[in-house]
From TrEMBL, chain A:
Cellular location(s): Endomembrane system
Protein name: Vam6/Vps39-like protein
Keyword Acyltransferase: no
Organism superkingdom: Eukaryota
InterPro entries referenced in this protein's UniProt entry, alphabetically: Clathrin_H-chain/VPS_repeat, CNH_dom, Vam6/VPS39/TRAP1, VPS39/TGF_beta_rcpt-assoc_1, VPS39/TGFA1_Znf
Keywords of the record: Membrane
Organism of origin: Linnemannia hyalina
CHCR repeat ranges, renumbered to this chain: 617-783
TrEMBL record, chain B:
Source species of the chain: Linnemannia hyalina
Origin superkingdom: Eukaryota
GO molecular function terms noted in the UniProt entry: GTP binding; GTPase activity
Protein name: Uncharacterized protein
A GO biological process held by the record: regulation of vacuole fusion, non-autophagic
Length: 906, 229
C-alpha cells in the first residue's frame, strides 16, 4: 500500500441533496434532488501543502423541476446532457439554456455517452454516441463532429440497470440477472455472466426474486435509478477501461472483459466488500464500499489505498476523480508518479512499482524512466532476500543481469572465485537516495538454511546454464565478425577478453553449484568445452577427490602433463582410478602430437603392468595407428626386449607391416631372447617357444634382410636358422651342408630340396648340390654313400646322370645304382617318346598351315578398267587397293572407313 | 485426477549431423522415408498420440539440427524435456564418439531435476547400410580369396566392435536402453519409440506440473432471460 491519491474536500455540508456529479476540465457540475444545477470551478493546488481552491460559478435553481439524475457533456456538440424527470435533455454548455428535449426518451432511466476520433474518408472526425435506456429498449443517438446523424432503437430483454460503451460499436449492459454485450451494427446481444453468484440467487427463490426485481424497478424509478442504499447482492456495475476493455462487477470481485466478451485478465480484482460503485482513474480501479473507498492496481489487483468516506455514493470516471455523498464532495488528486514509484521502492513494493511504470504513459515519468530496469533488479534482489529464488533468478535472467552480480548473492562456497571488486553489486547512483538505501540492504549477506541454499543453487544452475550459452553466442558472433575483417580491432579484442572472463565466472560458479547439488553433472561440464578457472577447479576437485573429473578437465584444457601426473599419483588409491588402466586409456587417445608424453608416461605403467600397458601401442584405436612405429620400436627396445617383441609381432602380424627393419629387428630380438634365456637355467620351455616362433617367422616372412642377420647369428648354434637364411640368399650348398653335417638331418635336407627345387633353373639344381654335399664332404671326410643313393633313388629323375656319374666314387657297386639307372632310363625314354609325339604333331600342324597358305595365295581379284571402289565410287585404276576377305575391293585409303561402317569386322 | 490430466511428453532427439534424426522421426510419425538428405535448420517437431500402459499420451518429438550444435537453440528449448534420444550412425565411428558430449551438453542445458535418473535412449541407426555394406564386402572377400596370395583382413570385426562399444557405453551411463534401427527399412523404430514414450512417461509422472485454475465466468450463467416478449 502506498499513497496514490491525496484527498481534498471540495464541498462540505451542501444544503441540497446531491444526486449526480460530473467533472470536466476545472469545472465540477453537481445536480441535486430538487433540480438545481451547481457549477464549481476547482483549481488544483500547486504545491504539496496548498489547499484546493473552489469557487461556485453558477447556481441554476430552476434547471429542472425534478431531480437531476445524471450529467454528462458532449464536447463536440457543445451540450450538457442531463437526465431528469425521465427525459434526456440537451442544454447549451455555455448558457445552460435548454436546446432540445429528446422526446423519444420518455421514461429513460439511464444514458451513456461516448466520443472517439475516427478516421472517416481520410478525415478525422469525432464520432459521438449517446445511448439512452428506456424501459426495455435502448435508443442510440449518433453525431459526427457537431452534426446529428441518426437515431436507432434496440430492444433489450430486460430493464437496463447500467451500461457503458465499449468502443463506438459495442454497448455493454448490466441487467439485474445478467451482463450482456450488444453489437450496435448487428443488434446481436451476447450474454456474459450474472452479477450475482448462483448461491445467492438460489437463496432468494425465484418468486421472491421476481418480486424484488419489480420492487427494485419501482424504487429506482422513484429515486432516479442511480442506486439505493443497502443495495441488494450483485448490483450490476460496469466501468470502462482503456483499450476497449470493461470491468464488470460480480459481488465482491470485478472481472475485466474485452470487446469480444472474453475475459482479458487471468484473475479478477477482489474487493474487501461488495462495491456499490466502480470507477477507474488510470491506472487504478476505484470502488465505493459501504464504509470506505478502495483503490487497487488493476494489473496486480493489490490494494493501493483505502480512505474513510462515510456515505460516499457517487464518483466520476477518469482523470478527474471526485467522490460524493449526499452533501459532500471530495477530490482525489494523484501524487506524481515518480513520487509514487519512489514510495513503493522505499517500501520494497517493487512489483507494484514495476506494474505502475508499465501502465502509465512514459511521458509522466521524467527522470525515472530509465530506472525500470533498476527497479526490476532491485525487485529480483528483494525476491532473493525473501527466499523466492525461482522467481528471483527468472527475473535476473530476463534482465540479463551480469552473472557476477547474481553469483555474488550466494555464500562463499559458490561465489568465492569472484574478483573482489565484483562484489560491490549495483553501484550506488549519486543523487538518488532511495535506491541507495535499497542497495545498502543488498550488500548485506543473506542467511540461508541448507535446504534453502540447495533450492537457491538449483535455480542458479538454470540461470547459469542460460547465461553461459548467451555469452558463448555473443562471443562467437564477435569472433565471426573479427574473422571477416582483415585488420584488428583492439576494442573488439578487449570485448572478447571480457566475454571470456564472464564465461570463466559463470562456468566456475556452475561447477561449484553442481558440486553442491548434482555431483554427477560435474563430469559433464568438465568434458564439454568449458571455461572453468583451472586453479579453482583443481583445488575443488582435489578436495572432493573427483580425480576422474579432474583428469577429464585437464584433458579438455590440454593440460596432459598434469593429468598424467595426477593419474600416476593416484594409481595406488582404491577406486575407479586405480591401476594403470586409466593412464592407458588416457595415453591411447593422445595421438602422435603428444608422443614425447606417451613415451614418458608410458614407462612407469609398462614397468608396473606391461601386459595392460602395452595397449597404449597395440590397441585398436584410431589415434594409435598414427604413432610412428620406428620411434616406438626404438623406445621399447631400450625399455624391454620382450615388449619390443610383442610390439613388433603386433605390427607385423596384425597390421601387416612389411618394413624390413621391423622384420630384421624382430629376428634379432628373438635371437637375443634365446641368447638371454640360455644364459640362465630353467628356461627351456621359453627357448623352445621362441625358437619355434623364430623359425616360423624366418620361413614365412619375406621382408627381412638375410645377409644382415646371418652376420649376427652365433657361430656355434642356430644351424637351422642359418640354413633358412642361407637358402634365402641362394647359398643352397651351404644350407644343405648345415643340414647334413651340422644337424645330420637328412630328411630335412631332402625336404629342403623338394621345397627349393626349380626345374626351370638347371644351373642351380639343389639335388645335385645335395649329392655333392654327401659325396664330396669337406675336410676329406668319408663320402656318405647311403643317403646319396637314397636321394638318387627317390629324386634321380631330376639329376643329369652324367653329372651323377662324375660324382659317384669309383667303388660304388653297380647294383646299388640299379634303381637310379632304371628310373633315369625310364625317364629319358619317356621324354624321348613324348618328344617324338610332339615332333610329329608339330609336323602335322605345319602341313596344315602350309595348306592354308596355299589356299590364301590362290585367291585373286581382277582389277579391270571399270572396277569401282564401292566406297567412293571412283575407279580403282592403278591406285593402291585393299581386298576384304569376302572379295570386296576398295581403295586402300577407303579401307578404314569401310571397316568402320561395319563391313567385315576384323 | 492425475490420470485425467492431458499428458504431453517432450522428447528431444540429438546427434551428429546426418545420422538420421529427422528420418527416424518421420518414419515413426508419418511412416515415410526419403533417401534425400536435407539438413534440419534449428528445430522442428511432430506430435503423435501413443498408448502407453493403457494411457493415451501425446508425444511431442523435437528434431534438432545436428550441424550447428546447440548454438541456435536456447536453454528454454531443453527445459521440461521428458526424454532425450541420442542417435548415431552405426557405420560412422565418429558419430558414436560424440554421443558423450551430446549427452553432457544436454544435461547442462536442460538442467533436469534429477540428472542421475533422467531417461536417455541411444539409437544406432542405418543398420540397413551395414547390411548392404556387408554384402558388398562378402563379394569382395570372395573375389579376394580366389587370389590366395593376398592377405585378407577380417572386416566384420569393425562393426561388431562399435556395437559392443555402444552397449558398453550405455551400460556405463546407467543402463541406457539401446536400439539398433533402420529408419529406411522401419526396423526397430516402433520399439525404440515405445520405450522412449514409456520412460518419458515415468519421468513425467514424477514431475507433475500444476496449472492455475482458469477463472470461470460462464458456469453460472442463467440461460433464461425472462420471457421472450
Amino acid at each position: 500500500m502506498h499513497d496514490a491519491f491525496k484527498v481534498y474536500t471540495v464541498i462540505e455540508k451542501l444544503p441540497h441533496k446531491i444526486e449526480s456529479i460530473f467533472a470536466q476540465g476545472d469545472k465540477l457540475y453537481v445536480g441535486t434532488l430538487y433540480g438545481t444545477l451547481l457549477v464549481y470551478s476547482v483549481r488544483e493546488p500547486l504545491g504539496q501543502d496548498e489547499a484546493i481552491s473552489v469557487t461556485l460559478m453558477e447556481t441554476l435553481k430552476t434547471f429542472s423541476k425534478k431531480a437531476i439524475e445524471q450529467i454528462d457533456i458532449i464536447k463536440a456538440v457543445g451540450v450538457l446532457v442531463t437526465l431528469s424527470d425521465g427525459y434526456v435533455n440537451l442544454h447549451d454548455l455555455e448558457s445552460f439554456a435548454l436546446r432540445t428535449q429528446l422526446g423519444e426518451t420518455r421514461g429513460a432511466n439511464l444514458f451513456s455517452v461516448f466520443s472517439k476520433i475516427e478516421i472517416q474518408d481520410g478525415f478525422p472526425q469525432v464520432v459521438t454516441r449517446l445511448a439512452v435506456a428506456v424501459r426495455r429498449k435502448v435508443i442510440v443517438f449518433s453525431w459526427q463532429d457537431s452534426e446529428f446523424m441518426s437515431t436507432k432503437d434496440f430492444p433489450v430483454p430486460d430493464r437496463v440497470r447500467t451500461m457503458e460503451w465499449v468502443g463506438t460499436q459495442n454497448l455493454c449492459m448490466g441487467f439485474d440477472s445478467e451482463y450482456a454485450l450488444m453489437d450496435c451494427r448487428t443488434s446481436v446481444l451476447k450474454t456474459l455472466f450474472s452479477p450475482t453468484s448462483p448461491s445467492v440467487q438460489g437463496a432468494l427463490g425465484s418468486t421472491l426474486e421476481s418480486t424484488l426485481n419489480t420492487l427494485n424497478t419501482f424504487s429506482s424509478l422513484a429515486t432516479g435509478g442511480l442506486m439505493g442504499f443497502g443495495s441488494k447482492p450483485g448490483k450490476p456495475l460496469i466501468t470502462r477501461l482503456p483499450n476497449d476493455e470493461i470491468l464488470l462487477g460480480k459481488e465482491n470481485s470485478s472481472i475485466s472483459v474485452g470487446v469480444d466478451g472474453m475475459p482479458k485478465r487471468k484473475k479478477g480484482i477482489e474487493w474487501s466488500g461488495m462495491p456499490e460503485e466502480l470507477g477507474y482513474s488510470s491506472p487504478y480501479a476505484v470502488a465505493i464500499l459501504s464504509r470506505h473507498i478502495e483503490i487497487r492496481n488493476i494489473e496486480t489487483r493489490e490494494l493501493v489505498q483505502s480512505a474513510e468516506m462515510p456515505h460516499a455514493r457517487l464518483l466520476t470516471q477518469g482523470k478527474l476523480l471526485y467522490i460524493a455523498s449526499t452533501s459532500e464532495v471530495w477530490r482525489l488528486i494523484p501524487f506524481s508518479f515518480p513520487q509514487q514509484i519512489d514510495e513503493l521502492v522505499q517500501k520494497e513494493e517493487y512489483q507494484e512499482a514495476i506494474s505502475l511504470i508499465n501502465q502509465i504513459n512514459p511521458v509522466l515519468l521524467d527522470e525515472t524512466v530509465d530506472t525500470l530496469g533498476k527497479i526490476k533488479t532491485l525487485y529480483a534482489h528483494h525476491l532473493f532476500r525473501t527466499h523466492q529464488y525461482e522467481k528471483s533468478l527468472t527475473l535476473f535472467s530476463e534482465l540479463d543481469t551480469p552473472a557476477a552480480e547474481v553469483i555474488g548473492l550466494y555464500p562463499a562456497v559458490i561465489s568465492s572465485h569472484l574478483p573482489p571488486k565484483e562484489l560491490e553489486v549495483v553501484s550506488p547512483k549519486p543523487g538518488n537516495v532511495d535506491l541507495n538505501e535499497a542497495n545498502a540492504k543488498n550488500t548485506q549477506p543473506i542467511i540461508m538454511s541448507t535446504k534453502e541454499l540447495e533450492d537457491a543453487v538449483e535455480c542458479l544452475i538454470r540461470f547459469l546454464a542460460d547465461k553461459r550459452q548467451k555469452i558463448s553466442k555473443s562471443l562467437q558472433t564477435l569472433q565471426n565478425n573479427h574473422d571477416s575483417f582483415s585488420y584488428r580491432h583492439s576494442n573488439q579484442e578487449d570485448e572478447a577478453e571480457e566475454y571470456l572472463q564472464m564465461l570463466e565466472i559463470v562456468d566456475t560458479a556452475l561447477l561449484k553449484s553442481y558440486m553442491m547439488t548434482h555431483e554427477r553433472l560435474v563430469g559433464s561440464l568438465l568434458r564439454v568445452n568449458n571455461h572453468c578457472n583451472p586453479d579453482e577447479t583443481e583445488s575443488l576437485l582435489l578436495k572432493h577427490k573427483k580425480y576422474k573429473e579432474l583428469v577429464d578437465f585437464y584433458r579438455g584444457k590440454q593440460l596432459h602433463r598434469k593429468a598424467l601426473e595426477l593419474l600416476k599419483t593416484i594409481h595406488a588409491n582404491p577406486g575407479e582410478m586405480n591401476g594403470v588402466l586409466p593412464t592407458v586409456n588416457y595415453l591411447q587417445r593422445l595421438g602422435v602430437d603428444h608422443l614425447p608424453l606417451i613415451l614418458e608416461f608410458g614407462t612407469w605403467i609398462l614397468e608396473l603392468d606391461p601386459e595392460v600397458a602395452m595397449k597404449i601401442f597395440i590397441d585398436d584405436e584410431p589415434e594409435i595407428d598414427t604413432l610412428p612405429r620406428y620411434k616406438i620400436m626404438a623406445y621399447l627396445e631400450r625399455l624391454s626386449l620382450d615388449l619390443c617383441v610383442v610390439y613388433l609381432e603386433h605390427v607385423i602380424h596384425e597390421l601387416g607391416d612389411k618394413t624390413s627393419d621391423f622384420h630384421n629387428t624382430l629376428v634379432v630380438s628373438y635371437l637375443a631372447q634365446i641368447q638371454r634365456d640360455s644364459s640362465t637355467p630353467d628356461n627351456e620351455e621359453d627357448i623352445i617357444k621362441t625358437k619355434a616362433k623364430l623359425l616360423q617367422f624366418l620361413d614365412e616372412s619375406t621382408s627381412y634382410k638375410a645377409e644382415r642377420i646371418l652376420s649376427r647369428l652365433p657361430v656355434d648354434s642356430c644351424y637351422e636358422e642359418r640354413a633358412i637364411l642361407l637358402s634365402r640368399i641362394g647359398q643352397h650348398d651351404q644350407a644343405l651342408n648345415i643340414y647334413v653335417h651340422k644337424l645330420n638331418n637328412f630328411q630335412a635336407a631332402e625336404e629342403y630340396c623338394i621345397k627349393n627345387f626349380n626345374s626351370n633353373d638347371p644351373t642351380k639344381n639343389v639335388y645335385l648340390l645335395l649329392l655333392k654335399v654327401y659325396l664330396r664332404p669337406p675336410n676329406r671326410e668319408k663320402p656318405m654313400l647311403e643317403p646319396a643313393l637314397d636321394i638318387l633313388t627317390r629324386h634321380g629323375t631330376h639329376i643329369d646322370p652324367s653329372a651323377v656319374m662324375a660324382l659317384l666314387p669309383a667303388s660304388t657297386r653297380i647294383d646299388q645304382l640299379f634303381k637310379f639307372f632304371e628310373k633315369s632310363i625310364r625317364e629319358s625314354n619317356k621324354t624321348k617318346h613324348m618328344d617324338m609325339i610332339v615332333k610329329n604333331m608339330l609336323k602335322a600342324e605345319r602341313l596344315q598351315t602350309q595348306e592354308q597358305l596355299t589356299f590364301y595365295r590362290s585367291r585373286r581379284v581382277k582389277i579391270t578398267e571399270d572396277r569401282m571402289c564401292p566406297k567412293c565410287n571412283k575407279r580403282i585404276g592403278n591406285s593402291v587397293f585393299a581386298v576384304f576377305p569376302d572379295g570386296v575391293v576398295v581403295h586402300y585409303s577407303c579401307k578404314e572407313t569401310m571397316a568402320a561402317m561395319g563391313h567385315w569386322r576384323t | 485426477m492425475a490420470s485425467r490430466k492431458k499428458v504431453l511428453l517432450k522428447v528431444i532427439i540429438l546427434g551428429e549431423s546426418g545420422v538420421g534424426k529427422t528420418s527416424l522421426m518421420n518414419q515413426y510419425v508419418n511412416k515415410k522415408f526419403s533417401n534425400q538428405y536435407k539438413a534440419t535448420i534449428g528445430a522442428d517437431f511432430l506430435t503423435k498420440e501413443v498408448l502407453v500402459d493403457d494411457r493415451l499420451v501425446t508425444m511431442q518429438i523435437w528434431d534438432t539440427a545436428g550441424q550447428e550444435r546447440f548454438q541456435s537453440l536456447g536453454v528454454a528449448f531443453y527445459r521440461g524435456a521428458d526424454c532425450c534420444v541420442l542417435v548415431y550412425d552405426v557405420n560412422n565411428a565418429k558419430s558414436f564418439e560424440t554421443l558423450e558430449s551430446w549427452r553432457d551438453e544436454f544435461l547442462i542445458q536442460a538442467s533436469p531435476r534429477g540428472p542421475e535418473n533422467f531417461p536417455f535412449v541411444v539409437i544406432g541407426n542405418k543398420i540397413d547400410m551395414e547390411e548392404s555394406k556387408r554384402m558388398m564386402w562378402d563379394q569382395t572377400m570372395t573375389d579376394l580369396r580366389a587370389r590366395s596370395d593376398l592377405d585378407i583382413y577380417i572386416y566384420d570385426g569393425v562393426i561388431e566392435i562399435s556395437q559392443k562399444r555402444a552397449m558398453a557405453w550405455c551400460q556405463s551411463k546407467g543402463n541406457i536402453p539401446y536400439f539398433e534401427t533402420s529408419a529406411k527399412e522401419a526396423i526397430n523404430v516402433e520399439q525404440a519409440f515405445q520405450t522412449i514414450a514409456k520412460n518419458a512417461l515415468q519421468q513425467e509422472v514424477e514431475v507433475e506440473i500444476d496449472f492455475p485454475d482458469p477463472i470461470k465466468i460462464d458456469s453460472d450463467t442463467s440461460k433464461d432471460f425472462g420471457c421472450a416478449c
